[in-house]
Specification:
alpha/beta; 7-stranded mixed β-sheet; flat; disordered N terminus
C-alpha cells in the first residue's frame, strides 16, 4: 500500500485530470487506513472575498470564474487529496503535490475559458490551505496507526463491530471529503459554528433550578460552584477542564446521583464551550433531553431532532447544516438524562443509536449524563466513552455554596450555624439540590429535618405552602390544602400510565384532576376545573416540581412533567403508601418497581413512606420480600435506606448467603459494600467473624479481592478496610490456604504471605468476579510508577517480582492469550490514564519493577504492532521507550540482513540481555502457539510455581508440578 506522500508525488507529475483523479482516489483508500483524527485547531483562513480585498486586480468576473473552477470535476479530487493531507498531518509533500496539480489545472482552465487570473493561482491555493487548516480535524501530532480499519476505529472512539455500524467509517471520510470539495459549504459550516456559539453567549442563561429562589436577582455565576469529577476507572480526581480538552474531541459519560447537579453542569459546560475567554476556538453545543427525544423524535434520527432543537433554541439550522458541523467536529452534542428513558427496551435502543451516532461522526464531541444506579442495564461502550462520576459537594464546596446563597439573601450570619447544624445530615447536604433546599428550609424555619424522606416532605411543603409567603406573592385560597394530594395523584397516574411517562397534555391533566377533586376532595363540579387550571398555572410559573416541558404537536397544548425525577418518585411513593392495603401488597408493588427500573429511588421511598403510615411498616415489608425470594441486590439497597429490625436484616442476610452458595454475583457484592453502618456491622458479626462462617469469609474475601484487583473503586475502602483487616488478622492461617488465584494475588499485594502457589502467568492476569483483571505483577509495577509515595515491598511481593523477571530473563515466552487478556484488563482499569511518574533515584526493587514493566509493554507492542495509548502513557516515565520500539520495528524489517545491532548505548543500558536482543530483532517474547482452550497457557508452557512455603517456612508444600486436573482448571468462579 502506497503512503500518501507517494500519492502526492504521483499527483505532482500528473499531466491530466484522469491521472489526478486516479491518484486522489488511491490517496483516499490509503488515508482511510492511516488517518487518525484528533480534534481541531484555531479557525484561521482567508476567504476568496478577503483575498479579493487584498488584491484589487481580482475583478468580479474573475471571482465568478474562480468559483466555477473550484466547483469543477477536475479540481474536486485535488481538493480531496489536500483535505486528506490536512487531516493526516502528513501535509508538506501532499500540499506540494496538490499545489502542482492545482496550478496545472488552473492554467488549462484559463486557456479554455480565456481568463487572466491563472497567475494568481498560488494565492488562491494558499487561501484554501488556510481554510482547510482552520476547519478540518487535524492529526499533525498523533502517532501513526496500523493499516487496519479496526485500529482507525479504536482511535476515533467507535470500535463497535456489530452489523449496525458496518459502513459508518467507510462513509465518514467520503462525506468529509465531499464537504471539502465545496468550499462555499465549508466556509458556511465554520461561520455557522461561530454564529451558534455567539447566540449561546447572547442568551440570558437559565437560572439553576432549585438554587435561585433568593431575595435578590442572581445570575448563573452567582451561585454556581465549580465541580470535581472522578474517573471511574482510574479513580483520579479532576475538574471540568480535564474532561473537555480544547483540541481533542471528548466522549464522556457523566454519572451522578439524583440531584447531584448533572443538568446544572450541562448548562455550565454549554456556556463555557461557547465562551472565547475560556476556549479557543469556541464550540457551540446542542442539548438533547433524552426523555423528550424518546417522546417526540424517536421515529426520526438524532440529527433531525437536534437540528429542530437548535432551530427552536437559537436560530434556524437544517439537517444538512448540522451534518456539516458534525462532520467537522464544530459542534458538541450533549444527551442529558439517559436514565430518564424509563422503558428499558427503549433505553437500550437509545444506547444503540448513540453508538451509531458516534460512529457516523467520529470527530464530534459527545457527553451523556445518567444516574449511576441501574445504569449497567443499558450501558454505553467503555471503549467509546470515558466514564466519570460527578462528585457530590465536599465540605469546602458546601461552605462556598452556603456563603454565596446566604449572602444573596442578606443572611451571611447564618452560614456558620447552618454548616454546624447540618453536620447530622452531611450525606444529604453533599447533594447540591438537597443542599439548596436545606438552605431555604433553614432560612425559613431555623431547623433541618433528620432523614431523607423528611427532607423531601418538608421541601414539598416549602414549595407549595411557604414558597410565595416569603416572596409576598398572594396565593389563591383553597388549593394549598390539597396540593400534596394533587401532586401525589399526578405522580401516581404518570407512573401507572405508560403513555404518560414522557409528559401529559394540559387538557388531560385538567380533566383527570377535576374528576379526582370532585370524587375524593369534595369539590363542586363547577369549581373543580377552574381550580385545576389555576393549579397548573401555578406550577408552570415556578417549575420547581411540575413544569412545562413542551407543547403537543396537535392543538398546541402545554405538556407538563416533573422537573426533578427525585420529587416525582417521592410523590408517587406517598400515593402508593397511602393506598396500600397491607405490607404484602406494598412488598409486591416495591418489587415490581425495582424490576421495572432498577435506577429508580422509588423502592427506598416506598418502604420509607409505608413505614411512616404503619407501625413497623418497613420491617414487615422487608420480611414479606424475603419470604417471596426478592432479588438480593434489592434487599441490600433497602437495608441501606430503611429502619429495619435486626432480625429482619438477619433474614435478608441469610437469603443472600444462600444465593452465594450457588454463585457470587458482582452486582450483589457491590450492593453489599454500599450498605449503611448498622447493616455493615451486623454482617461482620454474623458472617465474617464467627468461627463457623468459613465459607462466608472465603466468598467475601474472593469478592473483595476481585473488587480491588479490578480497580473498581476506592470509595468503600474507608468503610470496609478495617473490617477486612480484622477478619484477615483473625483468620490469617485459614485464608492463606485458599487455593484461589484472585485471593492469592490480593494477599500478596497486601504484603501477606500465602501458602498456595500459582502458575506464573496468573500473576499477570486472573479471572475475577468482575471479569479479567490485572494480577499482582501489574499492580506492583503500577505502585512503583504511579504514586509519589515510595513503595516498600514485603518479602513476598519482592519474591514475586524477582522470580517473574528471572523466569523471563531465562527465556520464558508469554502466552499470547495472557497478553491479550492483560491488554483488555488494562483497558478496563484505564491504565493509560495513570500519571506514570519518572523515577529519580530508583532502588534495586524499582529497577527490577522497571524491567518487569519493560517485558510487559514490549510484549504488548509485539502482540499488536504499532503504538497504543498505554505505550504513549508509559513513555512519560520512560522517554527512551519510543526510540526502543522504533529500533525493534527497524530490526524486524531488516532481520534477515542484520550483521550488527541496530540500536545500542544508553537507551538499552538498563535492559537485560534478552530485551536488548529483542529490540535488535531477536527472539519474540510472545508465544503464539498456545491453544484457545487454555486461557493462561499453563498446560503447554508450564513454569514451576513460586516456592513461598520454602521461602517463608509455611509448612509442607504441595507438589511443584500440578496435577492434570489443576493444569486443566478453567478460570475460577465461586
Amino acid at each position: 500500500m502506497e503512503p500518501i506522500s507517494t500519492v502526492a508525488a504521483s499527483v505532482s507529475i500528473a499531466s491530466g485530470t484522469s491521472a489526478v483523479l486516479q491518484a486522489a482516489n488511491k490517496g483516499v483508500r490509503s488515508a482511510y487506513r492511516r488517518a487518525r483524527l484528533s480534534g481541531t485547531i484555531d479557525q484561521e483562513w482567508l476567504t476568496l472575498d478577503a483575498l479579493s480585498g487584498q488584491n484589487a486586480s481580482f475583478t468580479a468576473a474573475e471571482l465568478t470564474d474562480v468559483h466555477l473552477f473550484l466547483a469543477s470535476d477536475a479540481v474536486k479530487p485535488i481538493l480531496a487529496l489536500l483535505a486528506l493531507g490536512t487531516v493526516l498531518g502528513d501535509a508538506d509533500e501532499v500540499i506540494d503535490g496538490a499545489r502542482t496539480a492545482f496550478l496545472n489545472e488552473s492554467r488549462r482552465w484559463a486557456i479554455q475559458s480565456k481568463t487572466t487570473w491563472a497567475a494568481k493561482s498560488d494565492a488562491i491555493f494558499d487561501s484554501i490551505v488556510k481554510l482547510f487548516h482552520g476547519v478540518l480535524p487535524n492529526a499533525s501530532h498523533s502517532e501513526e496507526l496500523t493499516e487496519e480499519i479496526e485500529a482507525y476505529s479504536d482511535f476515533i472512539g467507535t470500535p463497535l463491530k456489530g452489523k449496525e455500524n458496518e459502513g459508518a467509517h467507510r462513509t465518514y471520510v467520503g462525506r468529509l471529503l465531499a464537504l471539502t470539495t465545496d468550499l462555499d459549504a465549508l466556509r458556511q459550516t465554520s461561520t455557522l459554528s461561530e454564529e451558534l456559539a455567539e447566540a449561546i453567549r447572547a442568551g440570558d442563561g437559565e437560572q439553576i433550578i432549585g438554587h435561585a429562589e433568593v431575595d435578590s436577582p442572581v445570575t448563573f455565576d452567582d451561585l454556581y460552584v465549580s465541580r470535581d469529577f472522578i474517573d471511574v476507572s482510574s479513580e483520579s480526581i479532576e475538574d471540568s477542564g480535564g474532561l473537555v480538552s480544547s483540541g481533542i474531541p471528548f466522549r464522556v459519560l457523566l454519572m451522578g446521583s439524583p440531584g447531584a447537579g448533572k443538568s446544572t453542569f450541562v448548562k455550565f459546560l454549554t456556556a463555557s464551550l461557547s465562551n472565547p475567554e475560556l476556549r479557543s476556538p469556541t464550540l457551540p453545543s446542542v442539548v438533547i433531553k433524552c426523555r423528550e427525544y424518546a417522546r417526540e423524535g424517536f421515529s426520526g434520527s438524532l440529527v433531525s431532532f437536534a437540528s429542530k432543537q437548535l432551530t427552536a433554541d437559537l436560530r434556524p439550522v437544517s439537517d444538512a447544516d448540522l451534518e456539516g458541523l458534525l462532520l467537522t467536529g464544530k459542534i458538541a452534542v450533549i444527551l442529558d438524562g439517559l436514565d430518564e428513558i424509563t422503558d428499558l427496551p427503549r433505553r437500550q435502543d437509545m444506547v444503540k443509536r448513540i453508538h451509531r451516532f458516534t460512529s457516523q461522526f467520529p470527530t464530534t464531541s459527545v457527553l451523556v449524563t445518567t444516574r449511576e444506579v441501574g445504569y449497567n442495564s443499558a450501558a454505553l461502550s467503555t471503549k467509546v466513552f470515558r466514564s466519570v462520576r460527578l462528585q457530590e459537594f465536599s465540605l469546602e464546596q458546601v461552605e462556598e455554596y452556603c456563603q454565596r446563597w446566604f449572602a444573596k439573601n442578606s443572611k451571611d450570619h447564618l452560614v456558620e450555624h447552618f454548616v454546624a447544624e447540618s453536620e447530622a445530615v452531611s450525606d444529604l447536604r453533599a447533594n447540591p439540590l438537597l443542599l439548596s433546599l436545606l438552605c431555604i428550609l433553614y432560612r425559613d424555619s431555623g431547623a433541618i429535618p433528620a432523614n431523607r424522606r423528611g427532607i423531601y416532605s418538608q421541601c414539598a411543603q416549602l414549595l407549595f405552602h411557604k414558597w410565595d409567603a416569603h416572596r409576598q406573592i398572594k396565593h389563591f385560597e383553597v388549593l394549598p390544602d390539597y396540593t400534596d394530594r394533587l401532586m401525589e395523584e399526578i405522580a401516581r397516574w404518570i407512573y401507572t400510565s405508560p403513555s404518560a411517562q414522557t409528559g401529559l397534555e394540559e387538557q388531560i391533566i385538567v380533566k383527570t384532576m377535576s374528576q379526582y377533586m370532585v370524587s375524593d376532595l369534595g369539590f363542586l363540579p363547577s369549581k373543580a376545573e377552574p381550580t385545576a387550571r389555576d393549579f397548573l398555572d401555578f406550577c408552570a410559573g415556578r417549575a420547581w416540581l411540575l413544569g412545562v416541558t413542551g407543547t403537543s404537536k396537535h392543538g398546541g397544548n402545554r405538556i407538563f412533567s416533573f422537573t426533578h425525577r427525585t420529587f416525582y418518585e417521592f410523590f408517587a411513593a406517598e400515593a402508593f403508601a397511602r393506598n396500600a392495603e397491607n405490607a404484602t401488597d406494598m412488598a409486591a408493588l416495591l418489587r415490581k418497581a425495582y424490576e421495572r427500573d432498577s435506577t429508580s429511588l422509588l423502592p427506598e421511598l416506598l418502604i420509607q413512606s409505608f413505614d411512616q403510615t404503619r407501625a413497623r411498616g418497613a420491617t414487615n415489608v422487608f420480611i414479606s420480600l424475603c419470604d417471596n425470594g426478592a432479588p438480593p441486590a434489592l434487599l441490600l439497597r433497602l437495608m441501606d435506606g430503611a429502619n429495619l429490625a435486626s432480625f429482619a436484616r438477619s433474614k435478608g442476610f441469610a437469603l443472600i448467603m444462600h444465593g452465594w452458595n450457588l454463585t457470587l454475583d458482582s452486582e450483589v457484592f457491590t450492593a453489599l459494600l454500599q450498605v449503611s453502618g448498622p447493616a455493615r456491622d451486623q454482617f461482620q458479626s454474623e458472617y465474617l467473624l464467627p468461627t463457623e462462617s468459613a465459607i462466608a469469609r472465603r466468598k467475601f474475601l474472593y469478592g473483595w479481592a476481585s473488587f480491588q484487583l479490578a480497580g473498581s473503586s476506592t470509595r468503600f475502602n474507608s468503610m470496609w478496610s478495617p473490617i477486612v483487616d480484622e477478619m484477615v488478622e483473625t483468620y490469617a492461617e485459614e485464608l492463606a490456604e485458599l487455593p484461589d488465584p484472585v485471593v492469592m494475588n490480593w494477599l500478596l499485594g497486601s504484603g501477606l504471605a500465602a501458602r498456595d502457589t500459582l502458575d506464573v502467568w496468573e500473576y499477570f492476569v486472573c479471572f475475577t468476579l468482575y471479569g479479567w483483571a490485572p494480577g499482582i505483577a501489574w499492580w506492583l509495577v503500577d505502585g512503583v510508577f504511579n504514586t509519589d509515595i515510595p513503595v516498600v515491598p514485603s518479602a513476598s511481593t519482592r519474591l514475586v517480582v524477582e522470580r517473574l523477571v528471572d523466569e523471563l530473563n531465562r527465556g520464558a515466552a508469554i502466552p499470547q492469550s495472557v497478553i491479550a487478556r492483560l491488554r483488555g484488563a488494562l483497558e478496563d482499569v484505564q491504565a493509560h490514564r495513570r500519571p506514570w511518574i519518572p523515577l529519580d533515584r530508583p532502588g534495586d526493587f524499582e529497577k527490577t519493577a522497571r524491567t518487569l514493566l519493560a517485558y510487559i509493554v514490549f510484549a504488548l507492542a509485539e502482540d499488536r504492532e504499532g503504538e497504543s495509548e498505554l505505550l504513549t502513557a508509559v513513555a512519560r516515565c520512560w522517554p527512551e521507550l519510543t526510540t526502543i520500539l522504533a529500533g525493534r520495528a527497524s530490526s524486524q524489517r531488516r532481520r534477515n540482513k542484520l550483521r550488527s545491532p541496530i540500536l545500542s548505548g544508553p537507551a538499552l543500558s538498563n535492559l537485560p540481555s534478552r530485551l536488548q536482543d529483542w529490540v535488535n530483532g531477536g527472539t519474540d517474547l510472545v508465544d503464539f502457539s498456545v491453544f484457545d482452550d487454555d486461557p493462561l497457557g499453563v498446560k503447554y508452557r508450564h513454569i514451576p510455581p513460586l516456592n513461598f512455603d520454602a521461602q517463608f517456612g509455611l509448612g509442607p508444600r504441595r507438589p511443584q508440578v500440578p496435577s492434570p486436573a489443576a493444569r486443566d482448571r478453567t478460570p475460577p468462579r465461586p
